[in-house]
Predict the structure.
Amino acid sequence: MTSEEEPPAMVDVVVVGAGPTGLALAIGLRQYGLEVAVLEKADSGKRQARAGVVWQRALEVLDDLGCAERFLANGVALRTSELVVAGRSLGEVAMAAPGTRFPHPLCIEQDAMERLLGERLLEVGGKVEWSSEAVAVRVGAGAAEVDVRGPDGRQRTLRCAWVVGCEGAHSTVRKALGLPFEGGPRENLQVVQFNAIADWSYPARPGHTYMFLSHGISAGAAPRPGGGYRFYGFTADPDQRELTPPSLDEMSAFLARAAHDPSVKLSATDPLWTNRARFQDRFTRTLRSGRGLLAGDSAHVWAPVAAHGLNTALRGAHNLAWKLASVQLGWSEPELLDTYSSEQRLTALRVMRKTARDRMELPGTALTLLSMRLLGPRLLRSRRATDRIRSRLSDLDMHHRESALSVGERAGDRIPDLPVWTEGHWRPLHELLDYRHWTLLRVSGSALGDPHLARLLARYPLPIEVRAVEPAPGEERLLPPGALLLLRPDRHIALTARHPEEVAAYLGRWFRRT
């Protein structure tokens, strides 16, 4: 560097990619006060609808990031889903899940998601640098550097403590880290999507979705903001012809075949959204290499069965932001970031395996259709079976039990939003939590007194709020009397203990002393 050249600018974190994953990560980091540069090579946010459903657990993530309410105001709550097999309705499932402030999934499209996340990022003091492409990434022992080509074509260098790739399957950051993207194409599967208004035999009801299953084909219909439906479908793809978006006539014929309704007539929404795609199933073996990290499609991709790709990515950004902030603020050692890598990779693998076995959305075989017709009505009347469907779709049952961060009974589980008695009145438990700190619950009968507790927690710089709570009758299994529950910022149980020494040992394992 010559004497006339400026030294590289320095920030805490460079986030490459301003899709929902990168924006959510940047918001989480800014809520901890970190300086974040968000780079996006495009000149603006998405102008296409793309992803369309946010499940209940991801709505809790958005709540922690301060933007759930604006999502709800711009989306359509999905209340019921009806299964139609070979033209015959087998019944419907109520979509509302218990134990959360957000019982219903939400239909909202990706262009709106990115706009709303961008608004929130501005509120917390961040911004996106549009038309700014990361052309090279170098990760060293103490810092990283990102060469950025700006809108004027000139190049500059950003120096940072950490760099995170959120720019998709062709990630520059992943390639710079030398991490292979293992896997390959999902064989013989094609996905079509189309936003349209339907004239057909299936009645429109507020928040009511349809799932159609027929031989060699499946389709879904979800009411979308602004009217009409998001139609999507899966079919075999044996000849690998060039991909072109489906026409209105083709999509009408596709839906007529899947729904067994020859009267279907579709008219396109304005703006038009239509898409045809093939997908890959790919993963990196680790989501961290030194001071470089990966999130979202940069780390894992799979076919959009059950619409969990974006939701898994949002939960990953939620997991990473508080851990990266803890390390950068000096509360913990970088080893904490390895738990992000192991937890998120295992979560993504679980989701991918579920999508590979999904019999509700993948094209139906003769055996699948027969079993659905015989067993489907009974299953849809079964509380146990429909609870399992809701739990699987909502992601509220996703856990980190295998994580090194999880110690004790039910550790790693997400804590439900239970009613608790605290400070003289009943409150939902999640109202006591905050993404910017840990929470230690002293359940009724706990022997740990306030003075002793204050001395214990004062040894560590990370913020921990202490709450004395009593569970509602019947909820003692989830909040055992006398227990100490240490909750992570992301609402997962880190430690279940009985004695203060256990809390001290846990904190000493992961966090620095003051």
The chain is about 30% helix and 30% strand. The mean pLDDT is 93.
